[in-house]
Write a structure and sequence with these properties.
This is 6-bladed beta-propeller protein. It comes from Algoriphagus faecimaris. This protein has 328 residues and is mainly β. The protein folds into 2 domains: 29-145, no CATH class; 196-327, no CATH class. The chain is 3% helix and 41% strand. It contains 1 helix and 27 strands. The protein has one helix spanning 304-313; strands spanning 6-8, 14-20, 27-31, 38-40, 46-51, 56-63, 66-73, 78-83, 98-101, 107-110, 114-118, 124-129, 143-144, 147-148, 158-160, 166-167, 178-184, 189-195, 215-221, 226-231, 236-241, 246-252, 273-274, 277-278, 282-289, 293-299, 326-327. Strands 2, 3, 25, 26 and 27 form a 5-stranded antiparallel sheet that branches. It has a 5-stranded mixed sheet with strand order 12-11-10-9-13, with no helix packed on it. It has a 5-stranded antiparallel sheet with strand order 16-19-20-21-22, with no helix packed on it. A hairpin with a 4-residue loop joins β21 (236-241) and β22 (246-252). The longest helix has 10 residues, at 304-313. It starts with 5 loop residues before the first strand and ends with a strand.
């Protein structure tokens, strides 16, 4: 059981540029706090998805016992919480990479080779295996599980096998140029799309940095079957039609500050670091809103001296977790 210790979910009031295509480009919007609640937990709770019909939040907790999958109501109470990684018939022997609610309120959990579906009491309903050319395993965090359905498919899902905010490059696989792999459960077929050569940054990166171009950030719109794809160092969002597998459009990103993108040629020396900690700017997350609106969360570069001062005050500091360096 969890010890009582208040953990607050904080929402910041921010002005941001909202990207959409084509009507609302660069329109100014404002995020405002509409509600907050307190979750009593000894460990921080990471929220990944929300199911409005039942008023439930889906997330996870990294505890000393292991990763707990949790369901929380709108009052902040735990409805269900279980450790589902490990040995046992209802568990995954591999770490979960991603999670989300299904349309009926059940829960999808994705490992590198299996999809598990649980009820809201976190009892296993069913599972199936799938092939993946990347076999990515994520430790310590979970991403949103992105899936959609093909026309005429009422039950079988299609989904992206490699999670967002991961690098799918594999040494020796230089011939594998596609950034995205999709598995169709109905046909048991895998397809690949979004060649790295589609990206404008491909011609600007030194060839020794090829692996950096495979660090993908994406958001999938299941209704339109559109995939919004960028990479961590990129000046555009590419929109792909997942039904036709074609590039649909390009959206230019107008960052406030992203110095490396101003260079015509990019080499390893252009990436600012402190030992093994990246100090440079990077694209972080994509969010989709109603009306084909896309929000990009990117992280600004932190000066070397400022970073040194911050870690002297707090050795655990990282500007990726500092809201002062996030821009939308």
């Amino acid at each position: 059981m969890f010890k009582k210790n208040s953990y607050w979910s904080v929402i910041y009031l921010l002005s941001f540029s909202l990207f959409s295509w084509p009507s609302f480009s660069n329109a100014q919007y404002k995020l405002e706090k509409v509600k907050s609640f307190t979750v009593e937990s000894f460990y921080p709770v990471e929220i990944v998805d929300y199911f409005p019909k039942d008023g439930l939040y889906l997330g996870y907790i990294n505890s000393t016992e292991g990763k707990r999958i949790v369901l929380i109501n709108e009052e902040g109470d735990f409805i269900s919480n279980k450790i589902l990684e490990g040995d046992g018939p209802n568990k995954s022997s591999a770490p979960f990479n991603a999670m989300s609610f299904a349309e009926d309120g059940t829960i999808y959990l994705q490992s590198f080779s299996f999809i598990y579906r649980y009820d809201q009491n976190l009892n296993l309903l069913d599972k199936f295996s799938y092939p993946s050319s990347t076999s990515i395993r994520i430790f310590g965090r979970m991403e949103f599980f992105s899936y959609f359905k093909l026309p005429g498919s009422n039950s079988n899902i299609s989904f992206i096998t490699n999670p967002s905010d991961t690098n799918s490059f594999r040494p020796g696989n230089d011939s594998e140029t596609e950034l995205i792999e999709v598995f169709h459960k109905g046909t048991e077929e895998s397809i690949k799309l979004a060649p790295v050569t589609d990206r404008i940054m491909y011609s600007r990166f030194d060839k020794s940095l090829l692996a950096d171009l495979y660090f993908i950030i994406y958001k999938l719109d299941p209704k339109s079957r559109k995939l919004y794809l960028t990479t961590k160092t990129d000046s555009e969002i590419l929109v792909y039609d997942l039904f036709s597998k074609k590039l649909d459009s390009r959206i230019e990103i107008k960052h406030g500050e992203f110095p490396i993108l101003q260079k015509s040629k990019i080499s390893r020396n252009d990436f600012k670091t402190n030992v093994r900690i990246a100090l440079g700017a990077k694209n972080h997350k994509l969010f989709s809103l109603e009306g084909d609106k896309i929000v990009l969360d990117y992280i600004q570069e932190i000066p070397y001296g400022t970073y040194e001062q911050k870690i002297a005050e707090d050795p655990t500091y990282h500007h990726f977790q500092d809201p002062n360096y996030h821009r939308l």
